[in-house]
Design a protein that fits this description.
Elements (H helix, E strand, L loop, with lengths): L9 H26 L4 H31 L10 H31 L4 E3 L2 E4 L6 H36 L3 H5 L12
Antiparallel strand pairs: 1-2
Length: about 190
């Protein structure tokens, strides 16, 4: 089913919420892990974080290809040019961020000479250390996570604005409702 102006497909809605909730859980979990002292508990949490990160990468790749196929949704209410530009930037960054966060995590593991495993099943074997790869992955993962947190907050604030100020049905559409409105392209 393809998205329409009035209604999003079940695939769009499912991929959005599955990925959104996964990222919202993983970002603070990553910050928590970062705050821990080294030891068995921290390494166990890192292994879980990496496992879920690989699964998120698979979902993100599906969502990315689905979004490219369907295009980005059109606004349901009139928006100013700066709002349209900010929304476009935010949507693209969030979409790409769901890819670059797990990829940068994999870069850190590989660069550190560690294998990449999903719940104990090794999918990328242990290799030689590559300090440059590990450092680049660390920078992207750390900075990207903080930018993603800020943009997720902005995205939620915009959804609430659409819900309570514009009252245009944007949030209802993302929750699977059909919106009674005319497509601005017509």
């Amino acid at each position: 089913m393809k998205d329409t102006h009035q209604r999003f497909s079940h695939i769009t809605i499912s991929l959005h919420w599955l990925l959104a909730l996964s990222m919202i859980a993983m970002l603070p979990f990553g910050l928590y892990i970062e705050s821990l002292e080294g030891g068995p508990q921290k390494w166990g949490f890192i292994a879980q974080h990496k496992s879920f990160g690989v699964l998120i990468l698979l979902i993100a790749a599906l969502r990315f290809s689905w979004r490219l196929k369907n295009g980005f949704p059109k606004a349901l209410s009139p928006v100013k040019n700066w709002e349209k530009a900010l929304a476009s930037f935010t949507h693209w960054f969030l979409l790409l961020g769901t890819l670059f966060m797990p990829i940068s995590g994999i870069m850190m593991s590989m660069g550190g000479g560690y294998p990449v495993a999903v719940f104990g099943f090794e999918i990328i074997g242990k290799g030689e250390k590559n300090e440059s790869l590990a450092q680049l992955g660390h920078i992207i993962h750390g900075l990207g996570g903080k930018i993603l947190i800020a943009l997720i907050i902005l995205h939620i604030a915009a959804a609430l604005k659409h819900q309570f100020i514009d009252k245009d049905g944007t949030l209802a559409r993302m929750l699977g409702k059909t919106i009674d409105t005319q497509d601005p392209a017509n």
